[in-house]
Amino acid sequence: MVKVQNHIATREPLPSFLQGLLPESLVDLSWTAESEGVRELAWWPEENADGELAAGMRWGAELLTVDAERQVVVVTHEIVPLSAEEISAMADALRPGLTASNNAQYEAAIAALTADYPAAEIATWERQRAEAVAWGADHAAATPWIDIAAAARGLERDEYLARTLDKVTAFASVSAYLTGRRQGIDDQLRAASSAEQLAAVLIDYTLPGA
User: Fold this and answer.
1) What is the DSSP secondary-structure string of the chain?
2) Domain of life of the organism in this record (predicted)?
3) Residue 161, number of CB atoms within 10 A of its CB
4) Residue 148: how many CA atoms within 13 Å on its side-chain side?
5) CA–CA separation, 206 vs 186, rounded Å?
6) Do 16 and 89 share a structural domain?
7) Which of 48, 66, 81 marks a domain boundary?
8) Residue at 209 is within a domain
9) CA within 20 to 30 Å of 16's CA: 2, 49, 87, 110, which one?
10) Which domain holds residue 154?
């Protein structure tokens, strides 16, 4: 409820002795005792008439307009451009959440590459990679771990090594793409100087051709 006096609306609290009354009892207080000092006052309901706020703008001073015909106070606000400091502050407030989202999506994409393998096997990958790379450079290189694994799996040593080398190369390529993608998105987030620029940054880890 907004106070109205002489067709001018102001925000003043409703006196305690009027609190609890129905709104229709407050639109005309001529019925009150003269000693209460509110006969020429009224408290009318308010109606917000603000439209949409455009990008780069904010609400400014409140404007109260008396609509005598409907006995309501129409509330609007001035629309003012954000200052450079406000734009920067908004971007600074949004950036940490987007950075966290970017990192989380990157980690999820990397984790998906190894989702079908048990942790104990993943722990052997560096040994497998080293032996496969050495074999790729020199087929006479010793590969003791892979020799045992190939025999247990029922594969020829060279076939096992070739498969391992292919996987090593493919994994390195995909992980390099995802890592570069994360770094590129992070660069964009750091460079963005407004909320609009941050919103335009696409956080997506879909692999090419997927």
Assistant:
1) -EEEETTEEE--PPPGGGTTS-HHHHS--TTS-GGGS-TTEEEE-EEE---PPPTTEEEEEEEEEEETTTTEEEEEEEEEEPPHHHHHHHHHHHHHHHHHHHHHHHHHHHHHHTTTS-HHHHTTHHHHHHHHHHHHH-TTS--HHHHHHHHHHT--HHHHHHHHHHHHHHHHHHHHHHHHHHHHHHHHHHH--SHHHHHT-----PPTT-
2) Bacteria
3) 24
4) 5
5) 16
6) no
7) 81
8) no
9) 49
10) 84-200
Gyration radius (Cα) of the chain, Å: 35
Domain presence at residue 207: no
Rounded average pLDDT over 78-104: 95
Question: Could you report the per-residue pLDDT of 141-151, keeping only the tens digit for each?
Answer: 999 999 999 99
The reported pLDDT for the residue numbered 56 is: 85
Half-sphere exposure of 186 (CA within 13 A, CB side): 13
CA–CA distance, 210 with 204 (Å, rounded to integer): 12
Would the pTM of this model clear 0.70, i.e. be above it? no
Sheet with 46-48: list strands edge to edge: 46-48, 72-81, 57-67
- Residues 106, 171 share a domain: yes
Distances (CA, A) of 173 to 114, 170, 181: 14, 5, 12
> Cα dist. 93→5, 58, 86, 123, 197 in Å?
42, 16, 10, 39, 13
